[in-house]
């Protein structure tokens, strides 16, 4: 008889710094990485610095309106160019060490004695560029010399989950406004966070508020278990809020079948998208160490809702609680990953079987098969 159980990854995959370094190289530094919200760099010269793989990346916007990204390292002697997490420059990024200054497009434009040093080529010694795409209102970057297909990897993940691209486009994510952002410092491996997000076997144990709004989650099967499936609101539920009360004005362009449902997408390797009729919740993970991941979570609403000063708390509180419940669970698992009890891993029950596909994908990436 075949077993209904599948193995997980062994514990060392969640603790070993060498495996984590290999993941940084084979996954986060090669794939498209969702770095910042486009509105974080709304005007020319506004910038954010983010950790992508083992690099600090400087994301900004040029005077032509295009988002750009560079390795955050001065080309002279290697000082970190921008030490702040966010900020704004008027014309140039100026290194504090010897005052080399770079234009918003990365070109070296000024340095002490530059005119007397003809060998210092302004383009060759410009900032190292990182590939950029803007989609869903976010700036995605890729550190690879030859990036993989954005259409296949990023857009493809949405199509695989929802059945088509039009379904996510109806939520008009680029036009929504940031209503709230919460950053979570999670003492757990990034894969524990993905695995947790993919399954709902834990929903009835740790998510009472979510299961009230989405009663089918009590059955343990996540919306992500089926293609194109959105979990339906309970009959007594008016909106995706902490108590099931009415939410905000709905996004006008949704299809009828999106009216009372929650859809979730995992875009590997570090993005979760949650879609409900009146808002979207987007998580970006920044894996910092084998046992440390920062998660930045954005709540996006219609611009008129945010501009009108609506009380967003009931909407935000639902998924903020879900996040805290989930990240507590991940942090509870992390120490167990280095126990000898988990040396050979644990098991996936049937409602978690789709996680095995994620594990295989991680192994394939590490072995260079993908
Ligand atoms: S290291 Fe930046 S100017 Fe010298
Ligand atoms: Fe959860």
Q: Layout of SSEs?
A:
Elements: E1 6-7, H1 17-28, E2 33-37, E3 46-52, E4 55-61, E5 67-71, E6 86-88, E7 92-94, E8 101-103, E9 108-110, E10 129-135, E11 138-142, H2 150-162, H3 166-169, E12 177-186, H4 190-198, H5 203-206, H6 208-213, E13 231-232, E14 261-267, E15 271-276, E16 279-289, E17 292-301, H7 303-307, H8 313-337, E18 347-348, H9 355-366
Antiparallel strand pairs: 1-18, 2-11, 3-4, 3-6, 4-5, 5-10, 7-8, 8-9, 10-11, 12-17, 13-14, 14-15, 15-16, 16-17
Helix pairs in contact: 4-8
Bound molecules: FE2/S2 (inorganic) cluster and fe (ii) ion.
The major beta sheet can be summarized as:
7 strands, antiparallel
Question: What percentage of residues falls in helices of 4 or more residues?
Answer: 10-25%
Overall geometry: globular
Order of helices and strands: EHEEEEEEEEEEHHEHHHEEEEEHHEH
CATH topology of the largest domain: Naphthalene 1,2-dioxygenase Alpha Subunit, Chain A, domain 1
Q: In the CATH hierarchy, what is the class of the largest domain?
A: Alpha Beta
The CATH superfamily of the largest domain turns out to be Naphthalene 1,2-dioxygenase Alpha Subunit, Chain A, domain 1
The tally of domains stands at 2
**Total strands:** 18
